[in-house]
Amino acid sequence: MATSEREKKMKKIKQGGMRTMPFILANEVFDRFATAGFNANMITYLTQQLHMPLVEASNTLTNFAGTSSMTPIIGALIADSFAGRFWTITLGSIFYQLGMISLTLSAILPGLHPPPCSGNQTCREASKWQLLFLYGSLLLTSIGSGGIRPCVVAFGADQLTLNDPNPNTKRWSFFNLYFFSMGISTLLALTVVVYIQENIGWGWGLGIPTIGMFFSVVVFVIGYPLYIKLKPGGSPLTRLAQVVVAAFRKRKTPLPSDPNLLYQDKELDADISVTGRLLHTDQLKFFDRAAVVREGDMLSSGMPKLWRLSTVHRVEELKSIIRMMPIWVVGILLVTAASHNHTFAIQQARSMDRHLWHSFEIPAASMSIFTVFSMLLTLAFYDQIFVPVARRFTGKPSGITYLQRLGIGLSISVTANVAAALVEVRRKAVAAKYGLINQPNATIPLTVFWLIPQYSISGIAEAFMSVAHMEFLYDQSPESMRSTAAALFWLAVSTGNYMGTLLVTLVNDLTKKKGDWLQNNINKGKLDYYYWLVTGLQVLNLAYYVLCASFYKFKPLEVAEVDKGFRVGDEEGGGNGDVELVGVVDVRAK
């Protein structure tokens, strides 16, 4: 290995590692703190401060959540194509900061929100100008999320993956740490921030997360010298399109009997295969034609015409993405099923007795702390107890594979909606017993702690599902597309929220003539029917997942190791101990 290359390798070893985690996770912690502090009680802000109807407010929030989870695709493509993850995170944080400042101003300045309701007069809804300012602020935070969300998790995992030649155990622990940090910040937001919003005012309630976001940008930038910063490998969408076009042009070209005859070029793929090259697979053979060398496919310089000829590694990048899609889809309906947790569940809580003692009433939005708290406990239990025990039986560093973990989470999630439906039946029965059906603002004499099971089960399921889904997408995606893969996680969240909006709209429209399931007065509605509908959809989603997971094939990877050459793995399996060492190539002579 040349001296300059060895110096670069040693520099990478000195950079990265666990010492970068406080700087990286601080950005995500404050982002999540700001997001949770804003979202957790926003249904109250829209209905009580801006005087929106319930369904319109619910759809506004799910549409906002959907947009915030759609923009990460754009941010990921920018990061993977030319900007790199560090600068994309930094710019996204600045946009998010501007959005939070605007939201705070909308709560403080009287001209940006309608006046409070007075006496028995009809409350005046927010004007078009006031709503436009609100939507503009939300759009800025959505753009900021596009730069932060897809890059933070990939950027953090890079610090461990490239710092340690055998990072499997550290990598899956990082994903647990990532979601644990998110949970801690969310817990603080749901308690401290929501209490301030309810009891002190929305100016301070939104201002505190805004200040927190400012510090997150400062802390993240301070860590700049410590980070490993991978060079962007060019537009991943362009490479995928090149493979598709080349394969289509050669659709009638016969494939060679020996896959080793397909075109490979390590030098060309160097920037997009730093930790190892993807190996040929027998699936989706149609795309292998893109790597068949024909006359006229090469330039006079010896370089391939990329719209006519692709390397095996680039073909396998496309195959990896296609193989991931069926399991990625599972996350969409999962989010659709949970989209009501920040809307209808809060309205349930608001109608119940929330007194912890005579002088203190729990804010309705703070009930989500039970979801976060159970998720944190489950993550700690999983990392410290479950994994060591499971490892003894499976021999895998992570105890079980992320596909198994995802399946467990999906199963648990079904029971959360069953609990929600049963509690709603009980809540309505008590309302009927005390003659409160026609009094939407009355407090039903039923403690809000009846909602704890549905919140807690959701948190347990989240600890299994979200971590496994994110790890699956990161690990099974091509190396040069990991920001894009992380964005797929948020794209599933985005699509799920839009599906939630569509589901609520359809249910509301279809049931208006048959009992009106969803209405402003939930005591007269049939919210329990909606929960049972969502439960049925989750059962179908679970069955679909089991079918997809049983046929999934892990990507094979030739893994580069520091001072150890290459090891060739079959069905890598996400650091789950499935790598089989079948050969070693000395890369120091390359």
Automatic annotation (TrEMBL):
Transmembrane feature ranges: 94-112, 132-157, 177-196, 203-227, 360-382, 402-423, 444-467, 487-508, 529-547
Subcellular compartments: Membrane
Keyword Transport in record: no
Highest taxon in the source lineage: Eukaryota
Membrane topology: Multi-pass membrane protein
Entry keyword ATP-binding: no
Gene Ontology CC terms, in alphabetical order: membrane
Keywords: Membrane, Transmembrane, Transmembrane helix
Molecular function as annotated in GO: transmembrane transporter activity
Chief location of this protein within or outside the cell: membrane
Family to which this protein belongs: Belongs to the major facilitator superfamily. Proton-dependent oligopeptide transporter (POT/PTR) (TC 2.A.17) family.
Name of this chain's protein: Protein NRT1/ PTR FAMILY 3.1-like
Source organism of the structure: Dioscorea cayennensis subsp. rotundata (White Guinea yam)
